[in-house]
Amino acid sequence: MFSPLKQGDTIGIYSPSKPASVLAKARYERGKARLQALGFTIKEGLLTGKSDTYRSGTPKERAQELNDLLRDPTVKMILPTMGGTNANSMLPYIDYAALQQTPKILVGLSDVTAILLAIYAKTGIPVFYGPSVASTFGEFPPFVNYTEQYFKELFMQDVPIPYEMPTPPIWTDDRINWLEKTVEKTQHDNAWITVQQGSAEGRLIGGNINTMYGFIGTPFFPQIKEGDILLLEDTSKTIAVVEKNFAMLKLHGFFNNISAIILGKHEQYDDEGTGRKPYDVLLEQLDGLAIPILAEVDCCHTHPLHAMPLGLRVKVDATQKRITFLESWFC
């Protein structure tokens, strides 16, 4: 399938939504420099340094930027600069066959969920819910140090399977120090939360719920199969929007087939004074469905971030608060 990355390998960078290399130039350059310090050659996409206000280019231009990287046999991994809102508009124009001809590791989060799930739906090639260049690797220590450590373990080493996902000792969702570091961020002691006990094994599928809203029910969305483990996360939403999005999944029948749920930490969640957590809203929508649920997992917008393999089998032990990767993504 893939081979571990090594120093000298090329990582391609593209901007599927927001023009991060313009709007957050300092953070983008910091993230790029961190990857270069790991020994990687960086190939910047054709929209680097370009901006069409809220996006980096038209849907076709953004797809062309990605397609150029997909078709380049020297590119071993493709990372987004960051997310945004409009990646779903690229889906009809992506060259899915190119990835099948020259498989490479695709990673991203947030709005990039649309691209990751579409690629998996069209090719069957596993993808990774994980870091982006600006928003993740552009973060400051100490949080980015853990993210980098996990990145090296997953993609630069021959990962021993089964692999147990570590729990970082600290985390933050402070919205400060975006471009330059001015004060230290709050370091919260970390702990995952057992919402419903039990364990399950299955194919991992999912990502950012708000992004799913933009292409669910289309040919670009993978079919949810019996026994799947659903990964769900979001950022900066009110409890009202969280309920709407969980209800959307219920109405589409997602909860009829899955065997467990992994709920990522919700960055800057607004409970509107209710005191209810996202998992409280989820339980209401599940309406008594007794499946394992593990919440507050570090795999999304908060820092540090640990990548998750979409399309491969994992085990969730909600009782013991453990996630184990059961399939290798390397040849």
UniProtKB/TrEMBL annotation:
<dbReference type="InterPro" id="IPR027461">
    <property type="entry name" value="Carboxypeptidase_A_C_sf"/>
</dbReference>
<keyword id="KW-0645">Protease</keyword>
<protein>
    <submittedName>
        <fullName>LD-carboxypeptidase</fullName>
        <ecNumber>3.4.17.13</ecNumber>
    </submittedName>
</protein>
<dbReference type="Pfam" id="PF17676">
    <property type="entry name" value="Peptidase_S66C"/>
</dbReference>
<feature type="domain" description="LD-carboxypeptidase N-terminal">
    <location>
        <begin position="11"/>
        <end position="130"/>
    </location>
</feature>
<feature type="active site" description="Charge relay system">
    <location>
        <position position="233"/>
    </location>
</feature>
<dbReference type="InterPro" id="IPR029062">
    <property type="entry name" value="Class_I_gatase-like"/>
</dbReference>
<dbReference type="GO" id="GO:0106415">
    <property type="term" value="F:muramoyltetrapeptide carboxypeptidase activity"/>
</dbReference>
<feature type="domain" description="LD-carboxypeptidase C-terminal">
    <location>
        <begin position="201"/>
        <end position="316"/>
    </location>
</feature>
<dbReference type="Pfam" id="PF02016">
    <property type="entry name" value="Peptidase_S66"/>
</dbReference>
<feature type="active site" description="Charge relay system">
    <location>
        <position position="301"/>
    </location>
</feature>
<dbReference type="InterPro" id="IPR003507">
    <property type="entry name" value="S66_fam"/>
</dbReference>
<feature type="active site" description="Nucleophile">
    <location>
        <position position="110"/>
    </location>
</feature>
<keyword id="KW-0378">Hydrolase</keyword>
<keyword id="KW-0121">Carboxypeptidase</keyword>
<dbReference type="InterPro" id="IPR027478">
    <property type="entry name" value="LdcA_N"/>
</dbReference>
<dbReference type="InterPro" id="IPR040921">
    <property type="entry name" value="Peptidase_S66C"/>
</dbReference>
<comment type="similarity">
    <text>Belongs to the peptidase S66 family.</text>
</comment>
<dbReference type="InterPro" id="IPR040449">
    <property type="entry name" value="Peptidase_S66_N"/>
</dbReference>
